[in-house]
Please model this.
Amino acid sequence: MNDLKNENLTPELEALIEEARKENEMTPEFREKVYRDLEKTAEKMRRMRKLRMFFATVSAAAAIFLLVIGISSSLPKPEETPDYASTVAQGKPVTIELLFNAKSDLENVKFAISLEDGVNFYSSNNEIRTTKQQSWHGSLKKGENRIPFVVYTEGAGRFSITAQAEYEKFIHRRKILLDAQQKEVAVTMLTLDPIPLD
Model:
């Protein structure tokens, strides 16, 4: 009778089993009760199995969804197609050319460049060298305009530079990524979606 004792049995059935143990007999009522209780237990286990299968399916679907989201977020977006990519020897100044296109000649264009920690402007002017941001007003000619500036990295690591120009009712943004390794610095420039000016 000991093998009938199970955590899935109801308290009533456990009491009947204990009573049968004491009297050392199994009545038809006892057998009927055992049969009904085992049916209930089997049904309960079937429901639990279905519930576990449901949650396993939901968990698997959620994991696949998160994996797809993770992969798609790591892929370059259309607006993040690199304008150019190049490499420079580590320890050397890195010349970057910002590229802006204008539909006509423009005056009083507001430009700004912001450096992340680990990147500095390369200049003989100490004031420029020690600042992380530069902004100025200038002009653009109709068509393609190239605006060069020079930086250097303080060591190995991944750094970013943001640059923008405000013209033709938009903020035109560029993101420059510097991947500084022991021997070289990989440079990639991305054009981000323009933001409308208020």
Observations:
- The two ends are 83 Å apart (CA to CA).
- DSSP finds three helices and ten strands in the chain.
